[in-house]
Amino acid sequence: MRAVVIGSGIGGLLTASFLAKNGHEVTILEKAPYIGGRFTNLDYKGFGLSTGAFHMLPHGEDGPLAHLLKLLGANVRIVNSNPKGMIFYEGKTFHYREGWKYLSFTEKAKATKLLLDIRRGKLPVDDPEMSGREWIREKIGDNEFADLFIKSFLGWADSVLDVPALELAKEIKATLKWGGPGLVKGGCKALTGELARIVAENGGKILTRKKAVEVDADSKKVITADGDEFLYDVLISNIGIKETVELIGRDNFDHGYLKRVDSLKPSEGIKYNVALKGNQRIGNTVVFTLDTERVNGYNEPSSLSPELAKEGYTLIMLHHALQSRNVKAERRKGIEDIYRIFPNLDEEGEILLIQTYLDGNPVNRVASGQVVEEFSVEDIYVVGDAYKLPGGIEVEGIALGVMRTLERLGLGSFSEWYL
Fold it and tell me: Would you tell me which CATH number, out of the four given (1.10.600.10, 3.40.605.10, 3.90.660.50, 3.30.230.10), belongs to the domain 86-179?
């Protein structure tokens, strides 16, 4: 079977790896001069930054992405965070478990019951209009600390400040089931580079600077900007649902489907890369920032991979979900937050690079919590950040979507992983 994969992001590389390992003829077309999409390393001033992600997996070595990597026999080292998370609140940074002290006795009891209900699968109704944060307030009480924590978690994990209640419940369920995050040794590139190696080792081809401009679904071929044509039996698109529809031609879809596709909203944010002098500051964990106006959280990838930082420095990555389209004002507020977290930044280091994910290059093409239907064109499948299953945070959601695609291709069974 001939498989053409458009885009070498993590979803495309994962699917291509399974296809190649199962003996299929695989060709990956990537418009950029590099592979990995927003999950690879960016060398900058002696630091190993990332093109998008945080060199971290939301559920570490126990989540769905790690499971797929194990099935592939991928040589990728993932180390679970310890502690799973920390909190910056009222000017102090502390273990996430200490957060319970900010809840009253009644609120603690209600929160404990809610977590037990979620673990047992007792979830809220599927109502896209029901706010996740409002649902938490209804269940626990109008507690400022709890609301700020959920806001910070969603901003860091999903690059939005709220999601439907069912999506939030499933993300909590995923965390209870698979645990907290973990860093990837060597950063994002270590993972996508290994997937590329698996593809090549099994006879697959990866062609960079090859931009797909048209898909002829009738004759089953992909046409690139330089006029090359690639025939396929199966087409995997890792470039987004809207973009895939445009390649095939909008006139091939009914009005109702196009309306749903056009209504999908991306999640957008700003990532700050900070160099600090000296040894590691927080280690392998995530700090959820509740005291800040914009920044939702930060991590320290060089705590596991010192090679990601210049000698004598450690690398901190902070992120905030955009709250307005005034990027200049958003950045200014984000930088003020960084100085709130690291008051001595001017003496201790510098802001290396600020990356904004917006418009044509959002953090995710489809924000978490939106319903994405499986693609309707025969033998064409969408994977990646436009096809994350419910409850799947970032790349874990991508992995869940790849699992569903692999099932449709007859390459495995993963029902126990769905939330």
Answer: 3.90.660.50
Give the global pTM.
0.96
273 forms beta bridges with 317, 353
Q: What are phi and psi of 93, to 5 degrees?
A: -115, 125
Say how far apart CA 188 and CA 269 lie, in whole Å. Answer: 19
Residue spans of the domains in the chain: they are 2-78+185-264+367-417, 86-179, 269-357
Q: Do domains 86-179 and 269-357 have the same CATH topology?
A: yes
Domain 269-357, architecture per CATH = Alpha-Beta Complex (3.90)
Query: Given a cut of 90, is residue 282 above it in pLDDT?
Result: yes
Burial of 286-298, coded b for 16+ CB within 10 Å and e otherwise, reads bbbbbbbebbbbb
Distance in angstroms (rounded) separating the CA atoms of residues 17 and 155? 31
How far apart CA 169 and CA 180 sit, in angstroms, is 15
Query: Which of 114, 116, 87, 113 has its CA nearest to residue 102?
Result: 87
E-state strands within 182-312 = 182-184, 205-208, 212-216, 221-224, 229-231, 234-237, 269-277, 286-289, 297-299
SS3 64: helix
Neighbours of 405 (CB within 10 A): 23
C-beta of residue 32 within 8 angstroms of C-beta of residue 208:
yes
Q: Rounded distance, CA 347 to CA 324, Å?
A: 31
Express each pLDDT in 22-50 by its tens digit.
999 999 999 999 999 999 999 999 999 99
Distance (Å, rounded) from C-alpha 396 to C-alpha 78? Answer: 14
Indicate the CATH number for domain 2-78+185-264+367-417: 3.50.50.60
Integer Cα distance of 37 and 181 in angstroms: 21
